[in-house]
Amino acid sequence: MNIILLGPPGAGKGTQARRLVEKRAMVQLSTGDMLRNARASGSPMGRRVAEVMDRGELVTDEIVIGLIEEKLESGAPGGFIFDGFPRTLAQADALEALLASKGKRLGAAIEMKVDDDALVERITGRFTCGDCGEVYHDKTRPTAKPGVCDVCGGTDMKRRADDNEESLRQRLMEYYKKTSPLLGYYHAKGLLAEIDGLAAPDTVEAEIASVLSEGPGGS
Ligand code: AMP
């Protein structure tokens, strides 16, 4: 099934997407990761989006739709997970058209609900292993040995440039203004499933699994 993980920054979309990739042969398409890779590679597009991302604003629809279009060319045995895309109604329309052109469709848009106070706490303490992508948190999930990844032993721990309170405020504003209308959009199509993003990661994973087996209306 092709699914969208919807929710504000810090809702746990990336963490859950990684679990689905490991366990279900799904393919994660994170436009945030693609844009960060473009920045790291120093490509002209990467340089163009850097400041916009650091301010916590959205990059243009045209850029992210182009990135997704490219990635849809490769297959996904267990389906695609759209993580951080779509973020505007124009992107949602484009996604539907792109999927239809490949004979595919969306199975569910899963909203991970969380409150803003929890997001500030989650985002400002977040860091990831640069080698394997495992996500940690200063208070709630520190590494067993400081600076060393529990999963792969890597020592290249990274914090995102936009994981600070000021950017987060802007990212939340963008989410409520431009992305939250997608909740109504997918609800009207019978594709919206709501889950509690504040529950423990294993519980969230189980709720997503039930959407995958029973569809958006079944959970
Ligand atoms: P994320 O990793 O999903 O939190 O995205 C990080 C940043 O990348 C966002 O704050 C935006 O600046 C940009 N970005 C990621 N995905 C999109 C998208 N679908 N549309 C516009 N901007 C995006």
Give a quick set of tags describing it:
single chain, 219 residues, alpha/beta, 5-stranded parallel β-sheet, 3-stranded antiparallel β-sheet, 9 helices, 8 strands, 48% helix, globular, binds adenosine monophosphate
SSE order and pairing:
Layout: E1 2-6, H1 13-24, E2 27-30, H2 31-41, H3 44-55, H4 61-72, E3 80-83, H5 89-101, E4 106-113, H6 116-124, E5 126-129, E6 135-137, E7 157-158, H7 165-179, H8 181-188, E8 192-196, H9 201-214
Parallel strand pairs: 1-3, 1-4, 2-3, 4-8
Antiparallel strand pairs: 5-6, 5-7
Adenosine monophosphate binds at residues 9, 31-32, 35, 52-53, 56-59, 64, 84-85, 87, 91, 162, 171.
Determine the strand fraction and express it as a percent band. 15-25%
Number of separate helices? 9
Structural class: alpha/beta
Helix proportion of residues, in percent?
Answer: 40-55%
Bound molecules: adenosine monophosphate
Could you describe the largest sheet, including whether it forms a barrel? 5 strands, parallel
Ranges where pLDDT stays below 50 over 5 or more residues in a row are none
Shape: globular
Structure description:
The chain is α/β, with parallel strands linked by helices and 219 residues long. Helices cover 48% and strands 16% of the residues. The protein is built from nine helices and eight strands. The chain has helices at residues 13-24, 31-41, 44-55, 61-72, 89-101, 116-124, 165-179, 181-188, 201-214, and strands spanning 2-6, 27-30, 80-83, 106-113, 126-129, 135-137, 157-158, 192-196. The strands form two sheets. The protein has a five-stranded parallel β-sheet, sandwiched between helices. Strands 6-5-7 form a three-stranded antiparallel β-sheet. The longest helix is centred in the C-terminal third of the chain and has 15 residues, at 165-179. The two termini are 15 Å apart.
